[in-house]
Design goal:
The protein is mainly beta. It is about 15% helix and about 30% strand.
Length: about 300
Protein backbone atom coordinates (compact mmCIF):
# COMPACT_ATOMS: atom_id res chain seq x y z
CA UNK A 1 0.00 0.00 0.00
CA UNK A 2 2.77 2.38 0.92
CA UNK A 3 4.52 1.85 -2.42
CA UNK A 4 1.27 2.56 -4.29
CA UNK A 5 0.67 5.78 -2.34
CA UNK A 6 4.21 7.01 -2.88
CA UNK A 7 4.11 6.27 -6.60
CA UNK A 8 0.75 7.98 -6.93
CA UNK A 9 2.02 11.07 -5.08
CA UNK A 10 5.19 11.26 -7.13
CA UNK A 11 3.25 10.68 -10.35
CA UNK A 12 1.02 13.64 -9.48
CA UNK A 13 4.07 15.81 -8.88
CA UNK A 14 5.62 14.63 -12.13
CA UNK A 15 2.61 15.57 -14.26
CA UNK A 16 2.14 18.85 -12.40
CA UNK A 17 5.71 19.84 -13.22
CA UNK A 18 5.48 18.88 -16.88
CA UNK A 19 3.75 20.85 -19.66
CA UNK A 20 0.71 19.17 -21.15
CA UNK A 21 1.52 17.00 -24.14
CA UNK A 22 -0.89 17.80 -26.97
CA UNK A 23 -1.03 18.21 -30.71
CA UNK A 24 1.00 20.97 -32.31
CA UNK A 25 -1.13 20.63 -35.44
CA UNK A 26 -4.01 18.40 -36.45
CA UNK A 27 -6.21 18.04 -39.53
CA UNK A 28 -8.79 15.37 -40.39
CA UNK A 29 -10.34 17.17 -43.41
CA UNK A 30 -13.90 16.52 -42.23
CA UNK A 31 -14.48 20.29 -42.49
CA UNK A 32 -13.41 22.05 -45.70
CA UNK A 33 -9.91 23.42 -44.96
CA UNK A 34 -9.04 24.65 -48.46
CA UNK A 35 -8.42 28.22 -47.28
CA UNK A 36 -5.86 26.97 -44.74
CA UNK A 37 -3.46 25.46 -47.30
CA UNK A 38 -1.00 26.74 -49.90
CA UNK A 39 -0.60 24.84 -53.18
CA UNK A 40 2.89 25.10 -54.70
CA UNK A 41 2.87 23.83 -58.26
CA UNK A 42 5.79 22.67 -60.38
CA UNK A 43 6.06 23.33 -64.12
CA UNK A 44 2.93 21.40 -65.12
CA UNK A 45 -0.72 21.14 -64.18
CA UNK A 46 -1.68 19.93 -60.71
CA UNK A 47 -4.76 19.54 -58.56
CA UNK A 48 -5.48 19.46 -54.84
CA UNK A 49 -8.83 18.72 -53.21
CA UNK A 50 -8.81 19.41 -49.46
CA UNK A 51 -12.36 18.14 -48.91
CA UNK A 52 -12.38 15.00 -51.00
CA UNK A 53 -14.87 12.28 -50.13
CA UNK A 54 -12.79 9.26 -51.07
CA UNK A 55 -15.68 6.87 -50.58
CA UNK A 56 -16.88 8.20 -53.96
CA UNK A 57 -14.04 6.21 -55.57
CA UNK A 58 -14.54 3.17 -53.39
CA UNK A 59 -11.84 3.70 -50.73
CA UNK A 60 -12.71 2.68 -47.15
CA UNK A 61 -12.31 5.02 -44.18
CA UNK A 62 -8.76 5.54 -42.94
CA UNK A 63 -8.01 3.60 -39.75
CA UNK A 64 -7.00 6.52 -37.52
CA UNK A 65 -9.97 8.84 -37.77
CA UNK A 66 -13.65 9.12 -38.57
CA UNK A 67 -15.36 9.89 -41.83
CA UNK A 68 -14.12 9.56 -45.40
CA UNK A 69 -12.92 13.06 -46.20
CA UNK A 70 -9.24 13.54 -47.01
CA UNK A 71 -6.75 15.45 -49.13
CA UNK A 72 -6.40 14.31 -52.76
CA UNK A 73 -3.23 15.36 -54.64
CA UNK A 74 -2.41 14.98 -58.36
CA UNK A 75 0.18 16.19 -60.88
CA UNK A 76 0.87 16.16 -64.64
CA UNK A 77 -2.69 15.32 -65.53
CA UNK A 78 -2.55 16.49 -69.16
CA UNK A 79 0.53 18.62 -69.91
CA UNK A 80 3.02 15.79 -70.40
CA UNK A 81 5.90 17.18 -68.32
CA UNK A 82 8.13 15.71 -65.64
CA UNK A 83 6.64 17.62 -62.72
CA UNK A 84 5.26 17.63 -59.24
CA UNK A 85 3.51 19.68 -56.60
CA UNK A 86 3.29 20.11 -52.85
CA UNK A 87 0.91 21.64 -50.35
CA UNK A 88 1.63 23.11 -46.91
CA UNK A 89 -0.51 24.47 -44.07
CA UNK A 90 -0.49 28.27 -44.13
CA UNK A 91 1.57 29.80 -41.32
CA UNK A 92 2.75 26.57 -39.67
CA UNK A 93 6.21 26.94 -38.11
CA UNK A 94 7.29 23.97 -36.03
CA UNK A 95 10.29 24.15 -33.73
CA UNK A 96 12.00 21.70 -31.41
CA UNK A 97 11.39 17.98 -31.63
CA UNK A 98 8.14 16.54 -32.97
CA UNK A 99 6.52 13.66 -34.83
CA UNK A 100 4.34 14.10 -37.92
CA UNK A 101 1.98 11.15 -38.33
CA UNK A 102 -0.76 10.60 -40.89
CA UNK A 103 -2.71 8.04 -42.90
CA UNK A 104 -1.54 7.61 -46.50
CA UNK A 105 -3.09 5.83 -49.48
CA UNK A 106 -1.46 5.71 -52.95
CA UNK A 107 -4.14 5.01 -55.55
CA UNK A 108 -3.23 4.09 -59.13
CA UNK A 109 -5.00 3.01 -62.28
CA UNK A 110 -5.04 -0.71 -63.01
CA UNK A 111 -5.02 -3.43 -64.03
CA UNK A 112 -2.57 -4.67 -61.40
CA UNK A 113 0.22 -5.37 -60.81
CA UNK A 114 1.76 -3.34 -63.63
CA UNK A 115 -0.82 -0.59 -63.74
CA UNK A 116 -2.39 1.23 -66.65
CA UNK A 117 -1.09 4.14 -68.72
CA UNK A 118 1.15 6.48 -66.72
CA UNK A 119 0.50 4.73 -63.42
CA UNK A 120 3.98 5.24 -61.91
CA UNK A 121 3.65 8.33 -59.74
CA UNK A 122 5.17 9.33 -56.39
CA UNK A 123 3.44 10.16 -53.13
CA UNK A 124 5.64 12.64 -51.24
CA UNK A 125 5.81 14.18 -47.75
CA UNK A 126 8.39 16.00 -45.66
CA UNK A 127 9.40 18.55 -43.04
CA UNK A 128 11.56 21.65 -42.71
CA UNK A 129 10.25 23.54 -45.73
CA UNK A 130 9.36 27.22 -45.87
CA UNK A 131 6.13 26.07 -47.48
CA UNK A 132 6.32 28.47 -50.44
CA UNK A 133 8.11 26.46 -53.17
CA UNK A 134 7.08 23.14 -54.72
CA UNK A 135 8.95 20.18 -53.27
CA UNK A 136 9.36 17.52 -55.95
CA UNK A 137 12.27 15.55 -57.50
CA UNK A 138 13.02 18.12 -60.20
CA UNK A 139 12.66 21.21 -58.04
CA UNK A 140 14.70 23.19 -55.53
CA UNK A 141 14.75 21.30 -52.24
CA UNK A 142 14.46 23.23 -48.97
CA UNK A 143 13.34 20.29 -46.83
CA UNK A 144 13.93 16.69 -45.82
CA UNK A 145 11.38 14.53 -47.52
CA UNK A 146 10.37 11.05 -48.58
CA UNK A 147 8.37 9.38 -51.32
CA UNK A 148 7.18 6.10 -52.74
CA UNK A 149 5.55 4.84 -55.90
CA UNK A 150 2.16 3.21 -55.63
CA UNK A 151 2.61 0.59 -58.34
CA UNK A 152 6.24 -0.42 -57.80
CA UNK A 153 6.99 0.64 -61.36
CA UNK A 154 10.32 2.36 -60.70
CA UNK A 155 13.81 1.06 -60.03
CA UNK A 156 13.63 3.24 -56.90
CA UNK A 157 10.20 2.72 -55.32
CA UNK A 158 11.07 3.95 -51.80
CA UNK A 159 13.00 7.23 -51.70
CA UNK A 160 14.53 9.93 -49.49
CA UNK A 161 15.50 13.48 -50.52
CA UNK A 162 16.94 16.65 -48.98
CA UNK A 163 18.78 19.84 -49.90
CA UNK A 164 21.91 17.67 -49.87
CA UNK A 165 20.35 15.08 -52.20
CA UNK A 166 18.11 16.96 -54.60
CA UNK A 167 17.72 13.98 -56.92
CA UNK A 168 17.39 11.53 -54.05
CA UNK A 169 19.76 9.50 -51.90
CA UNK A 170 20.96 6.63 -54.13
CA UNK A 171 20.94 2.90 -53.59
CA UNK A 172 23.49 1.95 -50.93
CA UNK A 173 23.31 5.31 -49.15
CA UNK A 174 23.73 4.98 -45.37
CA UNK A 175 20.46 6.87 -44.86
CA UNK A 176 18.64 3.64 -45.75
CA UNK A 177 18.52 0.41 -43.72
CA UNK A 178 18.42 -1.47 -47.05
CA UNK A 179 20.69 -1.60 -50.11
CA UNK A 180 18.29 -1.23 -53.04
CA UNK A 181 15.11 0.85 -53.24
CA UNK A 182 13.21 -1.37 -55.67
CA UNK A 183 10.02 -3.05 -54.47
CA UNK A 184 11.60 -6.46 -55.18
CA UNK A 185 13.98 -6.01 -52.23
CA UNK A 186 12.88 -8.53 -49.55
CA UNK A 187 13.03 -5.67 -47.02
CA UNK A 188 9.67 -4.48 -48.39
CA UNK A 189 8.01 -7.90 -48.48
CA UNK A 190 5.43 -6.84 -45.90
CA UNK A 191 3.91 -4.38 -48.36
CA UNK A 192 1.84 -5.02 -51.47
CA UNK A 193 -0.13 -8.05 -52.58
CA UNK A 194 -3.38 -6.05 -52.38
CA UNK A 195 -6.50 -5.96 -54.49
CA UNK A 196 -8.60 -2.89 -55.16
CA UNK A 197 -11.38 -2.31 -52.62
CA UNK A 198 -14.54 -4.07 -53.85
CA UNK A 199 -16.37 -0.75 -54.11
CA UNK A 200 -13.66 0.69 -56.36
CA UNK A 201 -13.61 -2.41 -58.54
CA UNK A 202 -17.38 -2.12 -58.93
CA UNK A 203 -17.01 1.49 -60.10
CA UNK A 204 -13.94 0.90 -62.29
CA UNK A 205 -13.75 -2.64 -63.72
CA UNK A 206 -10.17 -2.04 -64.90
CA UNK A 207 -8.97 -2.28 -61.26
CA UNK A 208 -8.42 -6.03 -61.46
CA UNK A 209 -5.50 -8.10 -60.23
CA UNK A 210 -3.15 -7.85 -57.25
CA UNK A 211 -0.50 -5.21 -56.54
CA UNK A 212 3.18 -6.16 -56.67
CA UNK A 213 4.82 -7.39 -53.49
CA UNK A 214 6.85 -4.58 -51.93
CA UNK A 215 4.73 -1.80 -53.46
CA UNK A 216 2.79 0.78 -51.48
CA UNK A 217 -0.40 1.19 -53.48
CA UNK A 218 -4.02 0.41 -52.73
CA UNK A 219 -3.85 0.19 -48.94
CA UNK A 220 -3.80 2.50 -45.93
CA UNK A 221 -0.44 3.09 -44.26
CA UNK A 222 0.40 4.96 -41.06
CA UNK A 223 3.40 7.18 -41.71
CA UNK A 224 5.67 8.74 -39.10
CA UNK A 225 8.29 11.42 -39.69
CA UNK A 226 10.18 12.01 -36.46
CA UNK A 227 12.44 15.02 -35.85
CA UNK A 228 14.56 14.39 -32.80
CA UNK A 229 17.64 16.53 -32.19
CA UNK A 230 19.68 16.49 -35.39
CA UNK A 231 18.00 13.39 -36.79
CA UNK A 232 14.93 12.81 -38.96
CA UNK A 233 13.47 9.30 -39.10
CA UNK A 234 10.88 7.99 -41.58
CA UNK A 235 8.75 4.95 -40.76
CA UNK A 236 5.82 3.35 -42.59
CA UNK A 237 3.62 1.02 -40.53
CA UNK A 238 6.41 0.96 -37.97
CA UNK A 239 9.02 -0.16 -40.53
CA UNK A 240 12.15 2.02 -40.64
CA UNK A 241 12.67 3.49 -44.11
CA UNK A 242 15.29 6.22 -43.71
CA UNK A 243 17.34 8.20 -41.18
CA UNK A 244 18.81 11.57 -42.18
CA UNK A 245 21.37 13.67 -40.30
CA UNK A 246 20.15 17.27 -40.22
CA UNK A 247 23.68 18.61 -39.83
CA UNK A 248 24.24 17.63 -43.48
CA UNK A 249 21.28 19.57 -44.91
CA UNK A 250 19.87 23.09 -45.07
CA UNK A 251 16.20 23.55 -44.16
CA UNK A 252 14.05 26.38 -45.43
CA UNK A 253 11.71 26.71 -42.47
CA UNK A 254 9.51 24.95 -39.97
CA UNK A 255 6.60 23.85 -42.14
CA UNK A 256 5.53 20.43 -43.39
CA UNK A 257 4.34 19.36 -46.83
CA UNK A 258 2.51 16.65 -48.70
CA UNK A 259 2.74 16.17 -52.44
CA UNK A 260 2.47 14.17 -55.61
CA UNK A 261 4.81 13.82 -58.57
CA UNK A 262 4.86 12.10 -61.94
CA UNK A 263 8.29 10.56 -62.53
CA UNK A 264 7.87 10.59 -66.33
CA UNK A 265 7.63 13.35 -68.95
CA UNK A 266 4.32 12.04 -70.27
CA UNK A 267 0.78 12.15 -68.94
CA UNK A 268 -1.49 9.17 -68.57
CA UNK A 269 -3.83 8.51 -71.48
CA UNK A 270 -6.20 6.55 -69.27
CA UNK A 271 -9.64 8.24 -69.39
CA UNK A 272 -10.07 7.38 -65.72
CA UNK A 273 -6.71 8.75 -64.51
CA UNK A 274 -8.34 11.77 -62.86
CA UNK A 275 -10.41 9.38 -60.74
CA UNK A 276 -7.74 6.77 -60.01
CA UNK A 277 -4.22 8.24 -60.05
CA UNK A 278 -3.59 10.26 -56.89
CA UNK A 279 -2.10 10.55 -53.41
CA UNK A 280 -4.56 10.54 -50.50
CA UNK A 281 -3.70 11.93 -47.05
CA UNK A 282 -5.90 11.84 -43.94
CA UNK A 283 -5.73 12.28 -40.16
CA UNK A 284 -2.59 14.42 -39.85
CA UNK A 285 -1.33 14.81 -36.30
CA UNK A 286 1.85 16.59 -35.17
CA UNK A 287 2.85 15.92 -31.57
CA UNK A 288 5.85 16.90 -29.45
CA UNK A 289 8.62 14.33 -29.42
CA UNK A 290 9.19 12.39 -27.30
CA UNK A 291 5.52 12.19 -26.39
CA UNK A 292 6.30 9.30 -24.05
CA UNK A 293 8.57 11.38 -21.80
CA UNK A 294 6.17 11.23 -18.85
CA UNK A 295 5.85 7.46 -19.05
CA UNK A 296 9.60 7.01 -19.24
CA UNK A 297 10.04 9.19 -16.17
CA UNK A 298 7.33 7.26 -14.36
CA UNK A 299 9.11 4.01 -15.14
CA UNK A 300 12.31 5.40 -13.68
CA UNK A 301 10.46 6.41 -10.49
CA UNK A 302 8.97 2.98 -10.07
CA UNK A 303 12.33 1.30 -10.58
CA UNK A 304 13.95 3.56 -8.01
CA UNK A 305 11.24 2.72 -5.45
CA UNK A 306 11.85 -0.99 -6.00
Amino acid sequence: MRARQVCGFELALLFAAMPAVGSLYTQDFEVDSTALWTLNNGPSDAAADFFFDYSTVGIPAAPNGTGTRGMKLQANLTNGLFSGMSVSPIGLNLTGDYTVEFDWWANFNGPFPGGGSGSTNLSTFGIGTAGVTPQWPGGVQDSVWFGATGDGGSSADWRAYSSAAGTGYPDGSPVYPFTTRNNTNPYFAGFGGKTAPPAQLALFPQQTGTTAVGSAGMEWHRVEIVKEGTTVIWRVNGVLMATIDLTTVTLGGGNIFFGHSDINATSSTDPNDIHLLFTLIDNINVVPEPASLAFLALGALVLRRR
